[in-house]
Amino acid sequence: MEKTIISIMRSTEGNPDISYTGPNRIHGVCLAEDEVSFAPAAQKKTTTNAGPSFSCAAVTKGSMEDLICQSTTLSAMDLKLTETYKQALAKSHNNSTLKAEQRGWIKGRNECWKEDDKNACLAGSYQQRLSELQSKYQIKE
Predict the structure, then answer these.
(1) pTM value?
(2) What are the sequence ranges of the domains in the chain?
(3) What is the rounded distance in angstroms from the CA atom of residue 107 to the CA atom of residue 91?
(4) pLDDT (0 to 100) of residue 49
(5) Whole-angstrom distance, CA of residue 7 vs CA of residue 63
């Protein structure tokens, strides 16, 4: 039995971003046909940190993801990179090489645990990847 994997993420605007990978490496991005916003209604602000593109509830304490969750700067960089990556995916027609490169970048980013200044290492890693994607796929800030 061949499976299809569906990935759902929420953009910074609150809208769902959905992609899929199916049998025989078939993959794509699901696009909304209308301009419906799924952004949450105005709520009381309990924190100034919007958080990164991933759930901080499931991260391992002391991991690089945990450091990202604790830093408003790194969380903002993660959100910006996620949006840029999505644009690159769309421009590349959901290129599987780009996806593999992104997975490789995440593994490299996580190597920052070896550094004395982990936050500086993470910030540098995000900035470098952001620049690479913007340059290669001609994405403007």
Answers:
(1) 0.65
(2) 49-136
(3) 24
(4) 46
(5) 23
